[in-house]
Amino acid sequence: MKSIRGVFFFMNDSYGEINTLLKTQKNAKSNVLKERVIATQQKEEETGDTSCREKILSQDFRDFIIPNYRLDQELVYPKSQICVQSLGFGYRVAYVDQSLGEELSIAAYGYNGIPNCYSLLDMEAMNETGISVLQNYPGLNLRGKGIMIGFLDTGIDYENEIFRNIDGSSRIMAIWDQTDQNGQPPDTFTYGSEYTNNQINQALKSDNPKEIVPVSDENGHGTFLASVAAGGENIQEGFTGAASEAEIAVVKLKEAKDYLRKFYGIRQKAVCYQETDIAQGLRYLHLLALKKQKPLVMCVALGTNLGGHNGMSSLSRILGSYSRLVDRCVVIGGGNEANERHHFQGKLNQVGEVQEVEMRVESGNTGFVAELWGTIPNIVTAYLISPSGERSPVISIRQGSRYQLTFPFEQTVVDVEYQLFLRDGRSQLLFLKFDHPAQGIWKIGVQSLGRADGEFHIWLPVREFLDGNVYFLEASPDVTLTEPANTDDPITVAYYRGADKSVDINSGRGYTRDKRIKPDFAVPGVQVLGAGVNGTFVRRSGSSVATGITAGACAMIMDFEPADSDKSYHKSGGKYYHIRSTAEHIFRIPEPTVGLWNDGPVSIAGQIEKIITDGRGTIWQTFLSS
Fold first, then answer.
1. Average pLDDT over the chain, rounded to whole?
2. Nearest of 523, 375, 389, 518 to residue 448 by alpha carbon
3. Which helix (H) or strand (E) holds 203?
4. 579 pLDDT higher than 60
5. Looking at 312-316, 318-322, 403-407, 606-610, which range is the least confident one?
């Protein structure tokens, strides 16, 4: 086994500087770096190249997430090799020339410093939630008017009539297309193109709209999501979205860079988005809502199985911070992983005990990542047994260590990294990256070195990232919410089958790894009608559907203002007022089903009717007194 150490990048307050702590580098390498700095400074003066856009888009630059508290001794590089931008809430992203660092690894750059990659959560629901009742309730007419719903997804078919007002103008306030570099970026951003409501309206009046606003949605996921959340009525198809008069904001995310796909073993054609672009999109939606002075619902229908499942990732913290702001509501889908057999939950009852976890790898897999997580003081180590019986040494437990396990008979290499997280939930991580794994049953031997409750978890990637089947033979459907759905303050939504009100077998389940109750409630998410591409209508199922419906429901409740109410207090950012409180007073599900959907299927109409009949209602009184 080979142990490798590396380079840590830290950020200084100056946007043109980056700090580097060289852990095991020799003085000779420092001299080479200094010479490189002088040479690139001269080149920079000649070319005047200080643009960030090329660095953000270039495959030759790596992206790193860095919190503001990292202020170590600095080695300053020129702007031609580094660009730094804010992600908000104390986080920044550094775009760094790959020639400045070594091979990408957790040991070198830290687990949370390497952006994670997120997949789409694929895909009569309105009546099932009581939404259609509210849309036509005498004196209410709740349709999300004056509320903005923001989407981070594959784009939108802005020409579809369901996204227009009665007069034909668009309800889409703006689109930031991160994939289009031909237009003007939004203020304070340096890549992509922003298209305003005025430009969209001009395009809709044009004979060739795409010449003015060249935004499209080749996938259709973003259009469907926006339609179930905020689509207008289509009588012919019998369709209407939840908040049919809400304003819409869209971020079309650019796909993740190749180096991240390679690092996480993501199949070549998988649709995936990196954490930094998602965080930039959230910041854009927030700033746009501030500019327009609108309450904002953030709809996040993206997920991954990688991460601590305890709400401590960079993206989780950012989403949690937004959800605590006034006039903000964050909705996150729980994913579709409960029935994929990608999660193993084990328990070691005494120090020294070993449990061998069997994992089936089918043909066609070129590589994948598995993560073993535990909570300190539970400490475990591991070894691997290949399908032919080759056994690796037991992994030595040393902070920041990296090892390479070779299985010659199978022609398989497994890179293993070990990390302790004392700040982020007191966690332990074993990161295993399989390169061209042999077909058959692999065993991960997990051995206890120190224990409290003895519990550990292993997660495999979401199915969208795999190019062949990989699964545990004794998998657990619990604790299968995708990240960032384990975040505490935002709303996390599961889904069920509206036809028979049964839990869908695929819907991600709680609890979180640190035993918090999630998801918050369930919404219909099976065979729901929504907009497809080119003006068509399709039926889709999955977590994204429920996320969109819940985002629309949030907008409707934010739109509700009883007589003599303060127009701002009921729109403050906590989930407990926006949606959860409307459900928990109606459907209280017994404890055995808490991991499935906690407060049960949401009925917005039932709770608002209760508020009307009670005057201000119990929820209002509780909220006002808090």
1. 82
2. 375
3. helix 197-205
4. no
5. 606-610
Please tell me whether the peptide bond between 214 and the residue prior to it is cis, using omega within 30 degrees of 0: no
Distance of CA 499 to the CA centre of its chain: 29
328-333 and 296-300 strand pairing: parallel
Neighbours of 269 (CB within 10 A): 6
**Residue 25 has which token pair?**
């580098």
SS3 (DSSP) at 580? helix
Q: Is the pLDDT of residue 207 over 70?
A: yes
pTM of the model: 0.86
CA quadruple 156, 161, 166, 170: dihedral positive or negative?
positive
Helix (H, G, I), strand (E, B) or coil at 422: coil
Plot region of 152 (φ>0 → left; ψ -120 to 50 → alpha; else → beta): beta
Residues 6+ away with beta carbon under 8 Å from 493 = 331, 332, 333, 334, 519, 520, 521, 522, 523, 543, 546, 547, 550
pLDDT at 623 over 50: no
**CB burial readout 10-24, b (16+ within 10 A) else e:** bbbeebebbbbebee
What average pLDDT score do residues 440-448 get?
A: 97
- pLDDT value for 8: 39
Residue 328 near residue 531 (C-beta atoms within 8 A): no
Query: pLDDT, tens digit, for every residue of 167-199?
Result: 999 999 999 999 999 999 999 999 999 999 999
- Long-range contacts of residues 400-404, Cβ cutoff 8 Å, at least 24 apart: 400/5, 400/107, 401/3, 401/107, 402/2, 402/3, 402/4, 402/5, 402/105, 402/106, 402/107, 403/1, 403/2, 403/3, 404/1, 404/2
- As a whole number of Å, the end-to-end CA separation of the chain is 57
Whole-angstrom distance, CA of residue 82 vs CA of residue 31: 19
Q: How far apart are CA 59 and CA 587, in angstroms?
A: 50
- Distance (Å, whole) CA 17 – CA 11: 7
φ/ψ of 100, rounded to 5, equals -85, -15
C-beta of residue 271 within 8 angstroms of C-beta of residue 117: no
Angle between helices 604-613 and 617-625 (to 10 degrees): 80
Per-residue model confidence (pLDDT) at position 339: 95
Residue 397 in this model has a pLDDT that exceeds 90: no
DSSP state of 551: H
Tell me which amino acid residue 19 is: N
* 3-class secondary structure per residue, 141-156: CCCCCCCEEEEEECCC
Length, in residues, of the chain: 626
Instruction: Give the number of other CB atoms < 10 A from CB of residue 520.
Output: 27
Read off the DSSP letter of residue 460: P
Distance CA 280, CA 257 (A): 15
Q: At 141, is the pLDDT very low, low, confident or very high (cuts 50, 70, 90)?
A: low
Model confidence over 29-48: pLDDT tens digits? 344 444 444 444 333 333 33
* DSSP H helical ranges for 5-124: 27-47, 53-57, 106-109
Answer for the pair 481, 566: CB distance below 8 angstroms, yes or no.
no
